[in-house]
Amino acid sequence: MSLRFARPRAAPAFAASPRRLLAALLFLLLPALASPAFADGPFEPLTIVSRSGRHTFQVEVMRDDAGRAQGLMFRRAMAPDRGMLFDFERNAPVAMWMKNTYLPLDMLFIRPNGTVARIAADTEPLSTRTIDSGEPVLGVLELNAGTAARLGLHPGDKVEHPLFRGR
Questions:
Q1: Tens digits of per-residue pLDDT, 101-150?
Q2: Which structural domains are found in the chain, ordered by start?
Q3: Which residues belong to the signal peptide in this entry (predicted)?
Q4: Which of 28, 70, 108, 145 has the most CB atoms at less than 10 Å from its CB?
């Protein structure tokens, strides 16, 4: 039995092209970039009316179990004028946590009439400690940590969003 050794072949011409390598890499990364860890939007306007004035944000609204479970998990940044609103669909006590959430957040627990019931300020990233609403609420608004203090937000302030209209 004889062994034959193949000659090494030259690499295809496209392998050396940085432009093609970059295009292939982007093609492979696009699904990951579209995942909830990187995605944000679509946004809806939300305004908080407080003693210090009207404060407008653009928020993502989580209206189903999957969205509420994902929340802001795995995200590394959020613009100062952005937030996430959780619609719990009914007035009930809720508990949140920060598992897999890298951003420190302020959580505003909101009654069905749009008034803020409680503010949990500067929550601890990656913590599994539960953060209770303290009373039945319809929604929770998550903002970057420090926003509530910077804007002078307090329980009793009013949140204006279609979720809280007519309730």
A1: 999 999 999 999 999 999 999 999 999 999 999 999 999 999 999 999 99
A2: 44-164 (2.60.120.1140)
A3: 1-39
A4: 108
